[in-house]
Amino acid sequence: MPADPLDAQAPRRRSLAVLAEDMRAAQEVVRELRRGPLVPDRLLAAHQSLLTAMESYAAELTARGLPVPPRLHGDLRLQRGIAGRRDPAG
After folding, report:
1. pLDDT tens-digit profile of 40-56?
2. b/e for 2-35, b at 16 or more Cβ within 10 A?
C-alpha cells in the first residue's frame, strides 16, 4: 500500500502562543516543586520538561526567522546546566 502523501509532509507547526503557554506551565511546575518538600527526581524531571518547552519555543522562533530573546538564551543555558547535572549519590 503506498504511503499517504500527507504523511510525508513536514509536521504541523505549533503556534507561538501555545508554545509560550507550554513554557509558562512548565515554569510554574518548577516553581511549585521548589516551594514544597524537595523531591530531587521530580524537580529534575520538571526542569527537563521546562528545557524541552523552552527549546521548542526557541526552535519555532528560529524557524520563523524571528530572533530568540536574550533572556531566553540565558534561561536556556541555565536549564541546560541544570538538566546536565547528576546527583553524585545517585
Report:
1. 999 999 999 999 999 99
2. eeeeeeeeeeeeeeeeebeebbeebbebbeebee
Output the pTM of the full model. Answer: 0.78
Q: Are 52 and 27 in contact (CB under 8 A)?
A: no
pLDDT for position 48: 94
User: Which residue, chain included where needed, has cell 518538600?
Assistant: 37
Structure-model confidence comparison of residues 54 and 9, the more confident one:
54
* Cβ atoms within 10 Å, residue 38: 9
**DSSP helix/strand/coil, 89:** coil
Per-residue pLDDT at 88:
42
Distance from C-alpha of 51 to C-alpha of 36, rounded to nearest angstrom: 21
* Cα 57 to Cα 60: distance, rounded to the nearest angstrom: 5
